[in-house]
Specification:
CATH superfamily: paralog of FGE (formylglycine-generating enzyme)
Helix content: 10-25%
Number of helices: 3
Order of helices and strands: EEEEHHHEEEEEEEE
């Protein structure tokens, strides 16, 4: 995985998993809401995708809402280690699509130099304000023998299962980080973030209740995690 404060973070994954090809769409999330298993995303933002933009990634969802959806779908949120492996694989490439070329709107929905700090949700990105429909940038896919995974860079940040902490220099096997902290790790960057956030190892973090337009999620199918998830009640 990426470099932490004390040096290279060495991780071994011993269990197989299967990551969803796309970020969870509004169409998919709506089914969970209709089933009574998910709460509606927050709608109070100009770039909210729910409920009208059915093929866009659902945004404005907290970690708790994302966690509930994955459980309803018979899946779970990925750990940081699983997310990074799915995005880079054994080649440990800089971007999901490889070592080059550098990010562009042909490959990702991003903002080359990032949105201004005073307007993080500004009318920026490759398609203007807000994310693109899921899978709109196939050149930026991570292609595995079993198929392609879309939007691992750009479009919306993605929640992971782990608490956010600095990496340890000690080797880790099947890591999942549980801390008292209510902050969880984010991966993938978003449409309003710069080229630097498109690098696979780039990390973000947010409080579990965070609901913003550049944050969504995807799920994985795999073995249950060894430790229980926080309830954040």
């Amino acid at each position: 995985m990426g470099k932490g404060i004390k040096g290279e973070h060495r991780v071994v994954l011993t269990h197989g998993f299967c990551m969803d090809a796309g970020e969870v769409t509004v169409r998919q999330y709506t089914r969970c809401v209709e089933a009574g298993a998910c709460k509606e995303p927050w709608r109070g933002d100009p770039w909210s995708t729910y409920p009208a933009r059915l093929d866009y990634p659902v945004n404005m969802v907290s970690w708790v809402k994302a966690h509930a959806y994955c459980a309803w779908a018979g899946e779970r949120l990925p750990t940081e280690a699983e997310w990074e492996w799915a995005a880079t694989g054994p080649d440990q490439t800089r971007y999901p699509w490889g070592a080059e070329p550098e990010p562009s709107c042909d490959y990702v929905d991003y903002t080359k130099f990032g949105a201004p700090k005073w307007a993080a949700g500004a009318d920026v990105g490759c398609g203007g304000g807000g994310p693109s429909p899921v899978g709109s940038h196939p050149k930026g896919d991570k292609v595995w023998p079993g198929g392609a995974i879309h939007d691992l860079a750009g479009n919306v940040w993605e929640w992971t299962e782990d608490s956010f902490v600095p990496y340890s220099s000690e080797p880790a096997t099947d890591p999942v980080v549980r801390q008292d902290s209510a902050v969880h790790a984010l991966r993938g960057g978003g449409w309003n973030r710069s080229y630097a956030a498109m690098v696979v190892t780039y990390r973000g973090a947010a409080h579990y209740s965070y609901q913003v337009p550049a944050l969504g999620f995807r799920c994985v199918r795999g073995e249950p995690l060894a430790t229980p998830s926080p309830t954040h009640e």
